[in-house]
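for the writeup, i need someone to sanity check this before i put it in the appendix. the sequnce is what the collaborator sent (i think, or maybe the updated version? ugh). structure was predicted straight from it, no edits. if anything looks off just tell me and ill rerun, i have time this weekend
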Amino acid sequence: MASGTVGRLTGRLSGRRVLRGCREIADEVASVESDFVDLSDSALAALTGGFRARIAAGEDAFDLLIEAFAAVREASRRTLGLRHHDEQIMGGAAMAMGAVADMRDSEGKTLTCVLPAYLAALEGGAVHVITMDDRQAAEAARWMGPVYRALGIEAGLIGHDLETDARRAVYRADVVYGSADEIGYDVLRDELAWTPDELVLRGLDAGIVDDALHRFVLQGDTEFLISGPAGEDVVERRTAWAGVAGSLSLDAGDYAVHRETRSVRLLPQGVDRLQDLLGVDELRPVEDAVELGVVAAVLRAREFGTEEPDPAGNVRLARITGGGLLRAYGTLSGASAGAAEQSEVFQRLYGMTVVPIPSRRPEGEESGWIVEMDRYERQATASMAVDLQRAERAAERAAIMPGGEPVAVDGLFGEYLEMLLHGLPRSLGRDDVEHVLARIGDTYPISVTADELVRAPRRSAVMERLRADMVEAYGRRERELGAELAREMERRVLLAVTDRGWREHLARADALPGSLSLLGSGEPGEESMTEAYLDAVADSHLMMRELIVEDVVGYLFHIELDPEEPEDA
């Protein structure tokens, strides 16, 4: 695949301009073709080792593109009897630059994808050719397999019938073919793993999408979900709020119904009534999103005949959209018919240029399918909002796993104190200061008094004392447990707490459209609703982070462990 620099530059160029460079590449590949035709089979296969040695010595993979493409063209000619025509070389070049090659149907996109896949595989990363479904993946892997083997590399196939060990073995191949569904669910399962032994993927370095229009645009908001049973506390809360929703009345003026958008909205009387029933002073759209989502679902079911929410229904453990999966790859490209008509979608949502590859066949009718860009972008941005947070979480979680970097406990301690004390106003009363210090003192012994904090001319000095108290207290705990057990405790506490926090965040994100609509933050699909949703998802993520930090620090100081027990206990 193209280097990062090439890919970023390509994203800012017009498709026509990139096409000129692709024509030049096709001409250069043609000019060296005879050199590869004369190679023996063993010499052709040995080229891969030579290419990889040059990359290891510091040469950029993109600088090998001409030779690599010529090698693929010759391997295909020998094994399949199919010689890549110049337009396919141009399409492969566009993909190697991180673009979408717009190639008409029956122009040989599957064969074209071998070109960038081989180039990317030379760097040794995880290269995935993503197809529409399992059948297409199986056909492409079987058909293209001889080409890869002639070049001395392995192509694998991910199918739904593979067990964990077999899946892990397939992902070790140089190039892996699989549907977005299979790869997407493997990504999610890996993000629920607790040890490296449970992982199957070896990364998401290069994604090459066959039939990109469907995966990037038509199915970009498709959700992949892993769910699990709800805990008793969740079921009890859902049941209680469903009962509360049942006491609200349309006739009494508690809420209004919007038939056009099939939504409900609380009226002032309904807000007051709901607050009285729940014994709260205000309804908070983010903090109470799950509960308000239940209320909205019950009212919608009553008014529109939709399905009643099941209080005992499963909770989301992991989630990613099709577009979010594609964005997770280090480098991304694809080929598709009709992509040029959606070039604005590719550019605005993925930062990718669409390159119109000339057809070798008579011009036919275009698809004529054009999205309403502003509305589509709002919907796609909202559907993929959590995907960006998922990527951040995945990176943090990978670092926590055994074998990763040591857990930065000192950083967590500093974040904990900053969270509780940052921006503490000077006008804060002594009772309020005592409350903050009591929260800290419940976690570990402190030497700072409320009077000192109130009178301190500089809060930073007090922060340093509180931090020193924390480090000293944790040092005593670490000595009691022993360094090895303390490190394992840190990893397990972080994994358990962050996983729980993420599940709660997913539940809020799922419920936010109903919660926001119920409290009057815009109609579903409107720009105001999208903006409100994005702000609320960001607030929910921040809330998740703060709760995780506080819970992790609390557990690290108070969880009971016996140094004499076996580690798995």
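The radius of gyration is 28 Å. The longest helix spans residues 483-518.
thx in advance!!
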